[in-house]
């Protein structure tokens, strides 16, 4: 989308600050986001599609995506959701703690972006527009701060341990009280900067949640730190008092060091696993080289480009728009957008797509489509929607986390009361250990990190997850129903022959069928169009209706004879009233509709289609893993039975309408089966929506219109098998994570309450529990390539067709 020349300040929001030498703060002013021309940079119209030429002001409802800073857990996400829902004009909110993103649906007539972003800041968090240079700056700043906090905590721990060592190693009366007090004072001084800087986020988070009257995961950690430091400080200032027997600075610094180590590693791992989605979403460059009027190239912000502009794309850069190469030849990586894993050659006159990478040589590109007109934009929309969703298991964990924290506070108080009579100092330290060891970070991370990691892995393989809940459903399916045309068979159908009742009209009917068929994207229609394209110009289509599962109905007339229009049908044998016509092969029929009850067949077009070369192995592998395979198609009995016999499918149905397909699926679900559906997305919308989990092939239908849980960007059936295996793996890992979280807390709470777990060990256990959950989920990010033969699918496929799956 080209920039408005009357709004030069808006460009600054989109420009990489390093390009213009502007400080980040200068481009981060919230009021800039209130300009309607800026809304498209981090959002899109919500709901109904806006017509061409509409301005942002014409849109009644907007959906925006923002990246969040300062949140670490599910209770943080709930806090942000509550803060946004309280803003008038905000209709819907979804916040993901794992992805650190929020989706906000808002009404421009009632609220502006700066207002609901200020609501997030008032709640104690920071938000910046997603898919923006500022989002990357924010992530880099988070990493730097986390690293500096960890370094400071590690340094303080080493110093304090050095001062604490004499008291541990000395024999009774070896260490004079004056020296012991000096070492305590030195440790106290060293802990001050650690608490202020390294532990600052925990205290600010706990204070923020206290003001919101909410118990969060920062609360027990902050309380544990405060108790440990206060008890140790009293022992330092009043060594003869009740708390003077022992100080715990070493436990405090060790706990903080272990906690920050785990959190830093966790952030790094999450960026490499669940953060893979962000890597995909932020593929486009911040700036590009644009050819000026004098022929020279100058680097400009991405939003400056428009249709017809000429860009120079250097090796290693992503193509920022769809366009045609004018100069040069290169190799392009289009894996994300087409499912083609190998680089493809692109030269002069050939098209490249936004989001693909230029690999080998500089090229000059003329822009054809930009912004939301590109396929990449559709992919981003789907992935942004998925990244903020909360699967059912994650919602359950969120509901459990808050009550669990209340129970933890009660248990800590009970432990302190029990131990107080023996030693007040020990009582408070036991309470601190209980607070620290039971922080349910692992519980909140168990499901979303695994789900997002799996979604990122599938995206890199060419499968988009539209619905994270679909991963859980896909793992449990026992029956997979396939459509035939465009799924089990090749897209490239051809008409191999034509039969007409009146031979003198053969050319006319051939052109008529092509004129009607070219209005549809269905593979059969494409074949008919190709067969009669040269004669289609003799007919004019006045009106057309596509009836799912049956065919096309059109009002047409011959060119030059506008007064004599006729109604014709092009579709299945039954729809065309051609039961008396017989074809041994698959065919599509043309007929004239004299009245709804009087259909006169005119011609039939015999079709030839071939089964996908990987289909038999994939279906065999599915059966070997307990998935029953069925075929439901709207095509004729002969064509369907032939394909079923080739692939070894025992249960199949022919001449099925979308309604009958849906009825069949609902019937199987009522019988207790979990049903998956694989269709081309053209006329299977109700069936895809009705199945427990569903796939649509992205080449057949615009991604925004797909009604499935998963969109396969290529035409490779192996990706369906891979997705099922990965979904099963994901659910196993989620259950392992949940089991570990429950087991860890069930085992550590009694130990802490019994006084057998000091604060430093509690901190180590807490950090390791969260880290273990993330590491376990990281296994989903590294697929292992196996052939179909190894999967139990028969003959070995070529290496280029290897199925990427994850072993146990």
Short structural description:
With 808 residues, this protein is α+β, with helices and mostly antiparallel strands.
Please tag this protein with its features.
alpha+beta; 6-stranded antiparallel sheet; 26 helices; 46% helix; disordered N terminus
Strands, count: 29
Q: How many helix segments? A: 26
Low-confidence stretches: 1-28, 786-808
Radius of gyration: 32 Å
* Class by SSE composition: alpha+beta
Give the distance, in angstroms, between the N- and C-terminal Cα atoms. 46 Å
Q: Give the strand line-up of the largest sheet.
A: 15-27-26-25-16-23-24
> How much of the residues is beta strand, in percent?
15-25%
Major sheet, described briefly? 7 strands, mixed
- Tell me, what's the shape? elongated
Give the overall pLDDT as a whole number: 78
Topology:
Layout: H1 8-14, H2 17-20, H3 24-27, E1 43-45, E2 62-69, H4 74-85, E3 90-96, E4 101-106, H5 113-122, E5 126-129, H6 133-169, H7 177-198, H8 200-211, H9 218-237, H10 249-272, H11 276-281, E6 287-291, E7 297-301, E8 310-313, E9 322-327, E10 330-333, H12 335-338, E11 344-346, E12 351-352, E13 357-358, E14 363-369, H13 375-387, H14 392-420, H15 424-437, H16 441-461, E15 463-465, H17 469-475, E16 479-482, H18 484-488, E17 494-500, H19 506-517, H20 523-532, E18 539-547, E19 551-558, E20 565-571, E21 587-595, E22 598-608, H21 615-624, E23 628-632, H22 637-647, E24 651-653, H23 658-670, E25 675-679, H24 685-690, E26 693-697, E27 710-712, H25 718-753, H26 759-778, E28 784-786, E29 803-805
Parallel strand pairs: 16-23, 16-25, 23-24, 25-26, 26-27
Antiparallel strand pairs: 1-2, 2-4, 2-5, 3-4, 6-7, 6-8, 8-14, 9-12, 9-14, 10-11, 10-13, 15-27, 17-22, 18-19, 19-20, 20-21, 21-22, 28-29
Helix pairs in contact: 6-7, 6-10, 7-9, 7-10, 8-9, 9-10, 9-15, 10-26, 14-15, 14-16, 15-25, 15-26, 16-25, 16-26, 17-25, 19-20, 25-26
